[in-house]
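Lab meeting notes turned into a lecture example. A postdoc, R.K., suggested we walk through two folding results consecutively so the class can see how the record format repeats. The first protein's sequence and structure tokens come next.
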Amino acid sequence: MPPVVPNPTKEGAVYTLNLLSATGTGILLSAILSAFVMKYSPVAIVRTFFKTLWLVRYSLLTIVLMLALGTLSRYSGTDTTLGLAFANTGMFYPFFGTLMGWLGVALTGSDTASNVLFGGMQKVAAEQLGLSPNLMGAANSSGGVMGKMIDAQSIVVASTATRWFNHEGDILRYVFFHSVALACLMGLFVTLQAYVWPFHLMVN
């Protein structure tokens, strides 16, 4: 509804089952091929597959639930409401919008989930402020990458993969400052791209 769009428009809810083009399909096929090259038996491949699933079961559940939350926020209009609210930050929005992407990945554990959760919000806020939606979409992803090192999912996966159990807090303390500093630097760069020549020329 206005002011998000010029005229009232229905939201298209279409699910695309893209198994062949999905990233996970390529990774799975590569893993199976590599296992045969390393002379693993089919039984060993299946056993390793299910053992890995069991190790990362909580991480997988977290990803699924956050993607579900992002989809819910989109179709309920929550993301557009947030976009209108964040547009009130005015000229500082490129900086805070980038930090929103950082926060999204820190909370969800996935750049994809952050984009699903806040992508619509970034588009709405950018259009309200006369900024490039492409720039703010990229800022959401770029800021999100800086949050990847502190998200709970990555820390849990790291401690599980290295068998360094019960040291998740130590890992977080080691990387937190770097994550915040890099996110702020990315926010400053996005702000330069939004307003300052010649950085502004990079934006279509």
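The second example is placed directly after the first for contrast:
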Amino acid sequence: MLDSVKIQRRQSEIRQELAALVGKDNPSEDETRSMGDLDTEYRNNETRYRAALIAEDEERREAGQELETRSDTEWAEVMAGFEMRQVALALDEGRQLEGATAEVVSEMRAQGGYRGVPIPWEALEIRAGETLAGGTPDPIRTAPIIDRLFASSVAARMGGSMVNVGVGELEYPVTTSDVTAGWATTETGDVPGPTAYTTLDRPLKPDHNLGVQMRITRKTLKQSGSGLEQAVRRDMNGAIAEALDRAVFLGSGAAGEPTGILAGAAAWGITETAIDAAASWAAFRAAVIRFMVANAANSAGDVRLLLRPEVMDGMDDTLISGTAVSEWDRLTKRISNVALSSNALAAPTGSPAESIAILTTNVGGVPPFFVGTWGAIDLIRDPYADAASGGLRLTALATMDVTVSRSVQTEILTGVQ
């Protein structure tokens, strides 16, 4: 109980005792002395009550902050205890899920239908302290499992935002009109009329399903122990990141793939500029200037650039006449957010070889594109494919889509030699 509440209760008791004593016409000496003691205690308690309120005010503020963030904190703590190994053993042996893993799976199933075991996206994060390479497991000493090498997430480095959708579709209104300002020409004249504020909906739709298949041998299940937990987590994370990066930029919109930035550029109104010359800082500077003129960026530091590694190789080998400074040095000095990927952009073609570059920027905190994911990852077991060898065949299904916010926040440069 708070001290202020205790003091309030005591003050109420003192008032009741004083009321009984004051009502007597001829109080005794002891009663008169008691009235003096109660009066002194009441005045002292008033001082203590004010001090208690001041002290408890800070406690209330801290408690309020804790309440505001408690749900996120508790979810993060539960997610920290989620184990992929339990999911694999549940699908392989029918073992019961326990602890945080069982709690998360139960919560996800209550929110949507899954054929297998739902895995929240947070469970695929690469946690601090994990090893990315190591030896081969053996019965005597179990070392971390060697993982395949996957491309790092380029979509996040280019400013994209991942949005998780529970059910249905999620539409993002995009501003398409301009705001005008002007002066009244005379004392009684009108200012320029308002421009209609219109929006364009570009919905994310759950039409595209990505599947990741993993094969876990019986030896791995029996021998790897806790190492299997991190191996499955990183393997699935890397495979999804690789496929997602490619779909965001190179998705064809056909054969089940979402429409990527390059394929949807014309429909979304993204500016495409032909360079048809050797890659240089001057070519990228012109694109940065166009961003600034359109009020989409304040400086070159606000722009993110995606290139093929071959473009970096050519620019770093091209020196400015009479100096030891290369075109690559000039570029990276002004644009710090440069991503190089052989997965998100197609290989150069033609003679001389030509590639594509993509520039993006954030405006008012709005990302240039959104990546939508629906619900959780559905992990399903194939009980027949590896039944003869006792292995475990898993299929992870994820529903995703891509959409662009404002087209002015993205520009494509073609013919970059």
